[in-house]
Structure formats: structure tokens, C-alpha cells
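Take a look at the protein record below and flag anything odd:
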Amino acid sequence: MKPLFALAFSSVLVLQGCVFSPGQHLDPDEFKDGAKSENGSVQLLRITPEMLTGEVPSDRGTSSKQELIDYKPEAYRIGANDLLYITVWDHPELTAPSGPQQQLDANGRLVRPDGTLFYPYIGNVNAAGRTIEELRAEIARRLANYIDSPQVDVNLLRYGSQRIVLSGAFNTGGEVPVTTAPINIVQAIGQANIDTENADLSSLVLKRDGREYLLDLDDLNRPDSWLHQVYLKDGDQLHLPYNDQKKIYVLGEVNEPLALSFKTSSYNLMDAIGTAGGIRQETADGEAVYVIRGAANIATEPAKVFQLNAKSPTAFALAKSFPLQPQDVVFVGPAGITRWNRFISQLLPSAAVVGTGAAFNR
């Protein structure tokens, strides 16, 4: 039976050399730059300096920049549920009717839901929509009918009428009151404390007056950042998404295949390969570094496969300039000898079984 086994083994080797190569791989020699597959569903592109000029993303949110920074906070306007402390100098019975020993809140004046408040002698006063100075002047004018030259001061004890809302990947999100001190985006997210491990920093959404503005918090790390110039107003909503559905997958002949959470807008191919421990020098094909990018609608546009020839160390300069996108797959293919060795390692156990059977039949 030995001749029969040898014949079978030789036949398998011949077949392997012709048609069989185990594992996932693409043949870089089949690449024609910009060519599409036979059915048009995949486009193959080489990563070159010329190609990179079209792949570098433009700054996000710049179209809305001027519109957002043009907004300047106005003087605070009193609203329902604000708690005011009204002082009339030399008249403690008006300033603190509950007694000076009481807490300030006990002597505060709450603006009712209809926007009014009650004050001794003058009765109901329309407070909502007025600035602190406007309300102070109104109370002083009306008190002048009962008190000679009243000296009136108005302060806010508690803010309850205006708020902004922070949701998503914040440790202490929720409602943040709008106060007499203007607050910008940077201050608001600083108070809310970002969950840096799980936040998608590149996709902060500001919802204002029925519109949505997409902003990139990673811009704060850049010297030309303008986010600190964007002030918030009553009714604004800030939503910071989680990055659990936004990943990059690094597979193939790398030292540590993994899925990377995509947190910022500036993650490149070099970052991904480095995070995966680098290319496995002993098994990888330097010409077979690919970025596989699906299409939003595969029925109308092709998916793209970008190839980097990494045999030369200078190729990693290109990798550093190649921006990745969420759901990209970085795949490093095996060298031909690697595929052959893996085939042999898979074949030998079967050969041992055949050999054992042949010996048994002698």
C-alpha cells in the first residue's frame, strides 16, 4: 500500500501548488490601480502619495463654525422657578420678612409658573423675561409710592428656568442650569466629566433650534481649536455618542489581532498596525497590507480595498498619512511560504492517519 499512499500524497501536493492555498489572502500581483472586480462590487486601490491627497478628510464642522461663534450670550433673563433675593436697604421687614436668622431661601421670592412674583405693597410683579436690572428698576419705581427713594437690589439664589442638557458618554450628564455667567461648550463638558474610555470624541452633536451641528472634541488638542468660543443657551442639547459600535478590526499576520474602539477623527493605518503589535516579520507578505472598506450601499457603489506595499520601511510614512474610518478592516496577508507551511501542517496529521491505515493493511 505504500506506493498507493505516495501517489495520493504527490497528487495532493500538485493540486495544492495549482489551485489550493489555505487561509485568507489577496494576490497583489493581480492589482490594477483603480480596477473593479468582475461584478463591480469591489474597487482595488494602491496607497500612494497621489491617492492620499483625496483621502485626507477635511475639518469637520467648519461650515458651521462662523454661525456658532457668532452667537453671543445676552444678559440673563428671569424665568419661572427662579428664586430671587430682593433687598430693600434700611427696610429689613421687606428684605427678610421671615427674619434675618432664617436661611436665605426662606426669604427668597419664587417666580411663579405664570412669570409673576408677589412683593409687599406693590403686589404682583411681572418678572419673567426681564433682566435683573430691569426687574430691580421696576420694583424700585413702584415702591417709591410708599417709601422715600427706595434702594433696591436683586440677586438670584437659585436658577430654575433655563437649562442645557448633556446626554451620552458623560459620567455626570443631565441638566446644567444656565446662569448669569455665560457657559461655553468646553466648560459644560468639563462639568459633565467625559467617559474617555467609551466616548466617541469625534461625534459630539449640538442640537439647537431644530438643527444639529456635528463637532469634534478631538479638536481641543489642536492649537487652532475654536470650540471654546461656542457659548451655549437655554434649550441647547449636547449628545456625546458611545464608541461601542465604532471599531476598526486588525486581522491577519499581525502580532496581536484585535478590534480597536474608534474614539477620534484622526486614527491612521500606522496607529492601527502599531496597536496590534506590528507586522509579523517571519510570516507576513510585505506587499499584502490591505484596508478593506465597505460601501454605504453596496448595490450602488463598490466597496474599496486599499493596498500598501510595506516591504520598504518608507511605506510606513504613507501608512501614517492614511486615515482610517469606522468599520475598516486592516488585513495583513501571509507570505507564500507561510501558506505552504500551514497547508503542510494541516496535511501531515491526515497523512499520518493514511500511513497508519496502510501499515495496518499490510
